[in-house]
Amino acid sequence: MNKHLVNPFLNKGLSFSETEREEFGLIGLLPHKVVSIESEIKRLYERLEILETDYQKCLFLNDIYNTNRQLFFKLVEAYVVELMPIIYTPTIAESVTQFSSDFKWPQGALYLDTDHPEEIGIALENATRDMDVLDCMVITDGEGVLGIGDWGINGVMISVGKLGVYTVASGLNPSRVLPVVIDNGTNRSELLNNPYYLGKKTSRKQGEDYLNFIDQFVTIAEEKFPGVLLHWEDFGRDNAQVILDRYRHQVTTFNDDIQGTGIMMIAAFDKAVQVMEKPFSEQRICIFGAGTAGVGIAEQLKNELIFRGQTEEEAREQIFLVDRNGLVVTSDTAVTLGQKEFAKDSEAILDLESIIEAIQPTVLIGCSGQAGKFTQEVVTRMSHYNELPAIFPISNPTHLAEAQAKDIIEWSNGKALVVTGSPTPPFEYGETTFTIGQANNALLYPGLGLGIIAAKAKSVTNSMLLEAAHAISDWHIYEKAGDGLLPHITQLKQCSDRVAQAVYMDAVKNKLSLKTLEEMPIAITNMKW
């Protein structure tokens, strides 16, 4: 078969011109009619609209992705509002759960096995055989996927989906990135008992054996592709922070769950503070859900409060974590290392309503994956203590959200400032149209990655992350009641460019890049596909 039809980066399908068909030896291998890519986009979108479920649409798009990358990305860009929720959150969750059952394509990913560290080098060599440059890897072990838990090797779809968003949002070249999944077994009995599951049917390794494997992977990847951006995604709570801390000062790396979600919360928080007209020193933040994402959000918000003038101790005191045992307190023997910094010297308070009454937060963030936990009583109490309560139920997918935006607006009599994790269509309440901001990390990490790669930054610092958050918040304009606190998905490309510029400039300013500010426009443009 002709390589121009087999290789998804070369294949243009029916859009090969007559000259190209002759040059590449395609005469007789395609129908004679040359179809413009615009016509192909229109035809395929009409086909998509016929499909009944979002997952069916996702499978349809996945076939295009694996045969014709140019057409896939042009199609998604043309219908970004409609298709972003299909190629990523929230439909990606079903792609993960069904990956083994519906397997059709290896997705151009690198599959590693913790039982075979000796294969890391040859596996990476095989996966990158046609690559001269590798800009970014998105790496997962599938233990903590999107709030739906441990899905083992099926988590590869998270890495694939994230990299797809990188290209849609920031233009990162899809032929210079690599999705990676580390098969470390699974603790999900549903997979262990599934005859069609494609991963190892063993329980997960933990501790030094596992971390030694990660060490070997990082070392080999860095040796082969010095400076490659390592983007960690959906690792379990026990490993995510350890891995980030282990490498953050050695290589160019960040964890989207720990750092990215927190950065989006800073952008939303900053805009909410602006709308409230209440100073940062008077903010009290309650984070419902104290796992990897919750602790990461707390850490980033602490950094932001310090940036805004609070001492570290004052910043910590303004942030309250809530887990399955209630308010995180120092007397709780189950407190994790990440939670410990924010644990309070307080008596245990179990239910959320009582916690709100006790601490009277100005901001309530939900990242627990526990549907319906922001009840009418919770919202009513938040509204009692605040003229404009900020309530952010950001758990994904939609059915795991702590509350629905429309309910929060109704229960708060239209007062609440709401941000959600999944898309919410505009709706009316009273005489106001509410457009709900989505805390979609797609507004953050593609621009962050683009800025880091363009600057060839040596590491990813807290300063870069804060500048990324400020770029999102400062760029977005809140004009009237009902407006969203964050940019709309239609502004994805512009937002990504602003983030990339802010990150690039911070890297140069802090001498983490050998580039100059004058080189920035060309450096960023050259990274785009």
From TrEMBL:
SMART domains: malic, Malic_M. One of its GO terms (biological process) is malate metabolic process. It is an enzyme of class 1 (oxidoreductase). Pfam families: malic, Malic_M. GO terms for cellular component: cytosol. Belongs to the malic enzymes family. This is Oxaloacetate-decarboxylating malate dehydrogenase.
